[in-house]
Amino acid sequence: HQGVFVLREKRGVIYPLDYKYRVDTCYPEYYPRFVNAPTVITLVGLPARGKTYMAKKLGRYLNWIGIKTKVFNVGEYRRRAVGSDKLHDFFRVDNTEAYKKRRQCAIACLEDVSKFLNRGGQVAIFDATNTTFERRALIMDFSKNHGFKVFFMESICEDTDIVAANIKEVKVFSPDYVTVDRDTAVDDFRERIKHYEDAYQPLSLEKEGNLSFIKIINAGEQYLVNNIDGYLQSRAVYFLMNSHIKKRSIYLARHGESEFNVQKRLGGDSDLTVRGEEFSFALARFIEDEKLNDLKVWTSQLKRAVDTAQYLKVVSTERWKALNEMDHGIYDGMTKDEIKKMAPEEHKVIEEHPFNYRYPRGESYSDVCARLEPVIMELERQSNVLVICHEAILQCLMAYFLDHSSGELPNLSIPFHTVFKLTPIAYGCRVERYPLFVTAASSAGSASDK
Ligand code: ATP
Predict the structure, then answer these.
(1) ipTM of the complex
(2) Residues with CB under 6 A from ligand 1
(3) pTM for the full model?
(4) Separation of 47 CA from ligand 1 center, angstroms?
């Protein structure tokens, strides 16, 4: 032993610096007391292997399906503790001083993980390299003390082109490199990777076979899934196995203006107006100019959305029931003013609780989010897709891709006759907005179709 490192004297928990005694055998069997115990999803992998990318993306998905999740990035703790000007020497295996500091940062971050999970959080995503048995044993110990489940997510990438692109397109823009030029940053980051390689111990089936984990190999070429424990972990696996990192864009558009839009009526299944038809032409021209040879087009099953796709030069369009507009129940076909007059109290509730309000015999935004889950998953799997549907549905899709809260979702603006192009980049989505300059009822201040 190099000594005993006392981290949390107050609670009498002592973590030895060297966990060899465990690593040589295997972690002891450990089951938290509750099936629904909070979970620490722990990333494992060398730098530039997409850990932060996957952490953020999975976090966004879990929050969207209603699981309270937060990502904890140890790099941010390190920068706060020792500054953001540390070059590769700081990450050398033989730099004992720096190693201690990095370990302390990981522990400080774990302390915040426990605060979050003890105050109602359901999943904490612990985003760090965690590349040694010792570090993973520490995380297991920490979780055991708190009664948390642990699920490891390891990214192994031997595709040098992917790693090089990750360094060039993402890593050189890291806060670690604000004061150095790009070439220096690239060289320094490659050195940093080498230091981690010197100490790297991938998750081992032999030594860590009783842990729950997924190994993602070469950005999704292969997966190895081990000892999955419960609903949440299987949802995470399902999500990860459906995601990819190929370049592509998702185009979102509301259907062209319909007769009901002009009359400010909710829902229904009315035809396009002349202006709506004009938008269909304009949309076809816009998509032609994008020069995509593999575009898939999805519409709802409602006439106004199907007809908006009519001039597109694609082999076929697919009609999804799940993309139909929110069901307004007994208020379908009415205007907002009519609802206000007929049921003033009800109208007040709609205004006060827009996300959770469920139209009698109809749906709420929350219901719509739930029914869109298969659409979201399929969008994750696809390359270029154009989705033509309705305001409430597009608000939900935008909230997912742009990470908006349920409070913000009902206020997202989705104007008529505008195409939104979403392109995944580093840790999020770039949004481009293309108004196609065809006037519509909403731009004259009238109601939308919800
Ligand atoms: P570090 O340890 O330095 O924080 P990291 O492993 O967190 O690095 P990211 O910052 O997440 O790496 O790298 C982002 C890039 O990784 C993005 O360009 C993304 O396309 C790519 N990426 C996403 N998933 C994977 C994967 N499974 N394997 C390799 N690259 C991936």
Answers:
(1) 0.97
(2) 45, 47-54, 75, 129, 155, 157, 162, 166, 169-170, 216, 219, 245, 426
(3) 0.89
(4) 8
